[in-house]
C-alpha cells in the first residue's frame, strides 16, 4: 500500500480546488471516488468535473424492487464509474465494497476526516444478554456474529439489536474493557485503493490520525500552494503555515471582557458543565445576547453561534437563534458571509475513546483535538475569505489555545 497523502492545509487554501484540477487533468482510465461530508459538495464535484461523469449513488427502484444506496454504490463500482458520495455511505462499506474498489483500481479522495471509531449505545445488561444467548462471540477483541446460533435456532435473529448483526459481519465491532462495544471503520479498506488523499487541516489533532497510527497505516503530509493560477500540492511546511497565521490573526477580533468570567474554570462550558451547572444557562444566554446586540451591534443574518445540540434551546435568543451552526460542521462554504461569532463550547474528546487509544499505546492530544474542532467551525465564517470577524469564546481554555495557535505558540 502506498502512503496516504494527507493534505494538511488551512481551510480556503484550495484543497478541493486542487483535487478538481488534478481529476480534470487525469487520463480517462483513472478512476476516482470522492467522499465528502455533505451533498452540496457532491454536487460541486459533479459540476466541476463534467468529463469525468461522476455518479452519485441513490436509492432507486427497478421493476418494483428497491435498491438502496449501498446497492447503488456497488452497481456503479462494478461498472467502474467515477463516484461522488458522502461520508455516511462510505462508512457502510463491506467486503463487497472493498473487492470492487480493488478490482476497479480506484483513487480515494477523502474530504475532511471521517468518523473512524465511536462508542455504541448498548447497556452492559443488553451486552450480557447477547453473550449469554450466544448471538455474539468474543474473538479476542473483535465481536463476531454467531451464525451457528441462527442455524441451531433455525431462524435469523430479528430482535432489537439486528443492526449489530451487519456491523459484526462487516468486522466493525470491538469489545473494549469487556463492557463497551466500539464501532470501528475497517482499516483494510484503505489498502484496496491505488492512492488515497485525505483533505483536512490540523491532522495531528484528529481521531483519524490516531486511528492511522493504531492500525499502522503510513502517511505523508502535504499542503496546497497556488502559483500562476495553478494549485500545487507540496510537502508540508510548518513555516509556511505559521506565515499564513501571522496574516490571519489581524483579521480576528477576540472578545476580552467581563463576559468571559463565566468560563474561567478548566471545565467551564464542557458537556459536564452544561449538565451540572444548569443555574448558569440563563447567564450564558444573556451574555450571548449582550455580545451580539450591545457589544457588536451585529445584524442577525451575520450572526453565527454554537453549543452542544442538547443545550441549543437553553441558549437561543432574539436576533441570533437562526444563526446556530452545529459544532461539528465541516466542508461547507454556506456560511462564509457570517462575521460575528460565539463559540460557547469547551471541547473534549470522548474519555472512553481517549482511554481506548491509550490502552493501545496511542496518546490523544486533547489540546490539538479541541483546537482542530474549534478552528473547523470558525472557518465556516467569512474569515475563510480573509474578511474581518469578531468572536466571543467564553471558555478560557478554548480562548487561550486559539490565541496561542494564532501566535504560533502551540
Large-scale geometry: globular
The beta-strand count equals 18
CATH topology of the largest domain: Rossmann fold
- State the low-pLDDT regions, or none: none
Distance between the termini: 33 Å
Number of helices: 16
Largest sheet, order of strands side by side? Answer: 5-2-6-12-1-13-14
Q: What oligomeric assembly is this protein in?
A: single chain
Q: Percent of residues in helical segments? A: 25-40%
Radius of gyration: 23 Å
In total, the number of domains comes to 3
CATH architecture heading of the largest domain:
3-Layer(aba) Sandwich
Arithmetic mean of pLDDT: 94
| Main beta sheet | 7 strands, mixed
Question: Strand-residue fraction?
Answer: 15-25%
Alpha-beta content class: alpha/beta
Text of the CATH class of the largest domain: Alpha Beta
Explain this structure to me?
This protein is α/β, with parallel strands linked by helices. The protein folds into three domains: 4-116 and 189-236, P-loop containing nucleotide triphosphate hydrolases (Rossmann fold), CATH 3.40.50.300; 118-184, no CATH class; 244-406, 3-Layer(aba) Sandwich (Rossmann fold), CATH 3.40.50. Helix content is 36%, strand content 20%. The protein contains 16 helices and 18 strands. It has helices at residues 15-25, 39-48, 69-78, 87-90, 95-104, 124-132, 147-153, 162-169, 207-214, 238-248, 271-276, 281-295, 312-315, 351-359, 366-378, 396-406; strands at 4-8, 31-36, 60-62, 65-67, 83-86, 106-111, 117-119, 136-139, 142-145, 173-176, 180-184, 195-200, 219-227, 230-235, 252-254, 303-306, 340-343, 389-392. Strands 5-2-6-12-1-13-14 form a seven-stranded mixed beta sheet, sandwiched between helices. A four-stranded parallel beta sheet has the order 15-18-17-16, covered by helices on one side. Strands 7-11-10 form a three-stranded antiparallel beta sheet. β16 (303-306), α13 (312-315) and β17 form a beta-alpha-beta unit. α3 (69-78) runs parallel beside α5 and α15 (366-378) packs across α16 (396-406). The longest helix has 15 residues, at 281-295. The protein is globular, with a radius of gyration of 23 Å.
